[in-house]
Amino acid sequence: MKKHNKAIQEHYGQESLAATIMSALERAGKEIKVHTDTSTFDEFHIRGLEATTEIAELAGLKPGMTVLDLGSGVGGPARTIAAEYGCHVTGIDLVEEYCRTAEILTGMLGLGGKVTFRQGDMTDMPFVDGSYDRAFTMHTQMNVEDKSKLFNEVSRVLKPGGLFALYEICVGPNSPLHFPVPWADDPSISFLITPDELRGMLNDTGFGEIEWRDVSAPSLKWFQIQLELLSSAPKDAPPPLGLNLIMGPSFAEKFKNVFRNLEEDRVRVVQGVYQVRK
Ligand SMILES: C[S@@+](CC[C@H](N)C(=O)[O-])C[C@H]1O[C@@H](n2cnc3c(N)ncnc32)[C@H](O)[C@@H]1O
What is the CATH number of domain 5-276? Predict the structure, then answer.
């Protein structure tokens, strides 16, 4: 196993996650029928469903395309893309319990024929060369120390001319970061680089930039709204069906720290789409 993988698995891994989610849904009397019913807790990134739609649009998804979701978490983005764009999506994630939970939710939402998940390392994937039309990743490369290895792998599994869309967190001009954050409790598994370094690395590993955006401002706004909603909830209200389900008891502290890091320009949120040159 690669250096840091065990620490990353321990960081995200939550025992019996699927059971925790099912009992929270039951307590809230919430039935899940369509993929948007779970989007408050299974889109594990800033700006939730809205950001997934942006990435899908950037990637120019069309019905029938084969799409790879790198670091698929509990599968919200993969299901959204299968349900709304008619694509066949494969998710890969390092955390076994996330993949198991993703499979369960996908089955319950009737998307099992279109979406599959596989436990594995996205820097060393069990997929054959040139097998996907599109690849995307959302809030994952922060945990990847050797990013050129990741981008070489993405280039390998994409078909010639395939597109790679990403929605990522980079380091801002100010430092250090306030920890803990959702991707790490301390700097040992947090490998942030600047937006320019990320773009340079993509270019050096055989990708041509089609579009690049800094979306830190709408991200900050989203945090302000979420934090206002959380603080205005009545004290005796049941816990929300939000990312607290996936992140556990340290959710509030990690969530507030990302907000603070954004507000103080210690992190930047970026989006882009690239074409593989091969
Ligand atoms: C913040 S979550 C985002 C999950 C998902 N992309 C989403 O937006 O809902 C980061 C995910 O990246 C995964 N991850 C980190 N490093 C990975 C690696 N080397 N290979 C596969 N997955 C990885 C983690 O296990 C975790 O599920």
Answer: 3.40.50.150
